[in-house]
């Protein structure tokens, strides 16, 4: 009992500590910023990333727009809370027969995170619902290029609209650049980081919509479509978000990126900056507690060299960077 009380007090202390905000005059990509963050002894570790880039170039990767349509058109739902929610959960180990859950992608120099975060969760849920019978990597390229109502392609889009496209038009398969499936991603991977084998990222133009599969694929474009049965937003409630993931698989989340996030290396992220770069879409796989701090386990789309092999953790239960306020999901039709 004493141990339980101690842990509860530790969590409360960590969550209630006053947030330290660093000066906006510090170059967010500098060694000084990295050292300042680490000197705070915060819940995460910073390191030098994006060497040779400007903060404006990184901001272009954050392409989530907030939908300003009526709640009747795309309203929030109340999720029935599971009677037992484990302290830790990881979708990768919960559904090991679904390889898409462990697949980290690379959006290149395009602000297509909204299409990636959506296609990734759709892929996971398609496999989960079929009990592993349908293992697919759905195509962010199809959503990015062919969804007219989704937004502005590489200049940003709407997560909710991407899910509506899945329901109404379906999404074909397609992996990474030069990869497998009907429509692989047309934009090449690029080096988001200080040192690596890929070319530097450049501004990308949205690829044209093509309603056909690559020449060596065995199905036609229409034959390869996978559909959603429905789509919805979830209220900003931790237990409801957890219950949704436990029941149906990973969800897509939109949140505000602050400039210090560019330096994330490990630990549980919390912002120490007031400088915003834009909205970003990611995939929440699970949750846990690290050194007394509750977190969400999240997959990014900046390749496996970024962060913790493509993943990061972010504080749970305090709507850190708005991540609990913009959760979108759907049920596959299969």
Walk me through this protein's architecture.
The protein has one domain: Cysteine proteinases (Cathepsin B, Chain A, Alpha-Beta Complex), CATH 3.90.70. It is of the alpha+beta class and 334 residues long. Helix 5 packs across helix 7. Keywords: Disulfide bond, Hydrolase, Protease, Signal, Thiol protease, Zymogen. InterPro entries: Papain-like_cys_pep_sf, Pept_asp_AS, Pept_cys_AS, Pept_his_AS, Peptidase_C1A, Peptidase_C1A_C, Propeptide_C1A.
Task: Present the secondary structure layout.
Elements lengths: L1 H15 L14 H9 L4 E3 L8 H5 L16 E2 L11 E2 H4 L18 H17 L10 H7 L12 H10 L59 E7 L3 H11 L2 E8 L5 E6 L6 E15 L2 E7 L11 E5 L11 E6 L2
Parallel strand pairs: 2-4, 6-9
Antiparallel strand pairs: 1-6, 3-7, 4-10, 5-7, 5-10, 7-8, 8-9
Helix pairs in contact: 5-6, 5-7
